[in-house]
Input
Amino acid sequence: MMEKFPGCKSLILASMCGACLASSALAQSKWVDWTDETAKRLQLSNVPLNDDQEKDITVGDLDNDGDTDLLIVRKIPFSSPGARLNVLLMNEGGVLVDRTESLIPGFLTPDDSRDVLAFDCNNDGWLDIIVANTFSDDPRLYINQGRDEDGTFLGWVESINWFSPPFSSGPKFCAVYDGDIDNDGDNDLYFSDYDSPLEDRLLINDGAGHFTDETAKRFPTGINNSVFGTASFIHDFNLDGWPDIIKASGAFEPLKLLINDGKGIFLTAQVLPSTTVYMVRTADFDNDGRRDFYVVSDGQDYLLMNNSTNGDGTINVSQRDVTNSNKTTGFGGNVKVADLDRDGFLEVGVADVDVDIPGCIRRFAVLRNTMGDTGSIGLLDPNNPTNMSWNTQGVHDFAWIDIDGDQFMDLFQGTCTGYKVFMMQPFELPTPGDTDGDGDVDLLDFAAFVDCVTGPGGGVPQGCEQLDFEGDDDVDFNDFGGFQLAFTGG
Output
C-alpha cells in the first residue's frame, strides 16, 4: 500500500532529535478495579442482605431523574417452583434504596419470576416493567405513571388484561426481550420458553401497551419452537432494516437466527455454528456496525463474529475463542456488556450460576476486549488465574451501573448468598495526542504523529487512536491543528 505522503516522513524526521524516533505504539491503559462498598451503597427493607434466592436483574433510569435505578426479580433457585417477591432499588444520591412498597406494591405479590425488562411500552417516554414468569404464572406488566403536577414520582400500576388471547397452557418463560418486529414504531415482546415442547411467544404491541399473541401468524413454519429457551434478542443482525431474532435453547440446540422477511414474518431459521449454548449476549464487539455474539458454552466460552450478509439474508460468522480464562468454562449464566475501561470497545461480564444446574462454586468473570490495545478482536481475562474480591463465587446475575454518577461503571451482584455492590476505582482517561501514555503531549508524540500521518492511508493505524482529532476515522494533516493545541498545552 502506498504512503499518503511519500518522502515527507524522512524530511520531517531529519530535523528532529534521535530520541524523538520512539515507537508510536499506544501504551495499555491501567486495567479497571472495584472496591466493595455494599454497606455504604445498599439499603434493603423487603429482603435480607444474605438473600439466598435466585435473582435476575435489570437497570434503567426508571424515574427520569438522570441516574440509573435497578430491578431484581426472585424465585427459588434452579428448576423448582417457589414464588418470591421482587425488589425495586431507586438510586438516591448514590445509594440504592428499596422503594418497592411505595412505588411498585405489585412486586410484593410473590411469583416465579425468571427475567425482568424495563422498556417503554406506550411511547410516553417513561420506562415500564415486564416480568417473565415460569411455572404457569403469566408475565406481568407494570405501567409507569410518571410524575404528578408537583413533580412527585408516582411509580407503577400493574396492567390488567394487557395481552390477548390467554395462553392455551401455562408458560414457563425464562427470558423476555423487546424490539419493533413490524417496524411500526412501538416495542413488541419475545418470550423464551424452556419447557419442551412448548414454543417461544411473540406479542405484538398496538402502540398503547396492549399486546396480541401473533406467534402462529409470525412463525408459520414453527421455527420458534423451543427446547430449553434461555435467552433471545431482537436486532437487525443482517442490516436489511428489519429486526431479526437470535435465540438460545440451552445445550440441546445450536444458536438460531430467525430472519425477518421484511414484513414482520419469519420463514427462515439460520443455524449458526455453535454447540452447548447455555446463554448468549449480542453486541458489536469490533465496532464494525454489525452485532456479534458472546456464547456461554459448557466447554469454553467463545465469540461468534458477524462478518457479512449473504443474498438470502443469512449472515457469515467466524469463531474467536476466549482462550485464557479459568472462569469461562462449565455451566455459565447471564452475560452483560459495557465499555469498562472507556477505550470505545465493549467488555464482557459473565455470571457463573447456570439457570437450571445447581452449583455455586464457580466464579464471576470479567473479560477485557483487546481491540483497544492490539487492534485485533479478542476477549482476555486480565486476572487469570487470580481471583479478585469481585470475582465472586456463585453469581446468579449482575448489572453494570454507574451508581455515583462519576461516569465509571460500578458492579451490582446478586449471588447465591446475597448482594454485593462494588464501586469502580476512577482512573485517568487517555489524553488526546498522548500516544505513549505518559500523560504528556511532547516531541515523542510529534514523532508518532508524523509516523501516523505519513503511513499507509485508510482508517486509523494501530497506535494512532489518540491522534484522530477530527473524528473522521483517519489521521492526516487535517488533524495537525488539534495536535498543535494539545502539544502547546503540554
About this structure: Residues 164 and 212 are 5 Å apart (CA to CA). The first helix runs from residue 8 to 14. The radius of gyration is 25 Å.
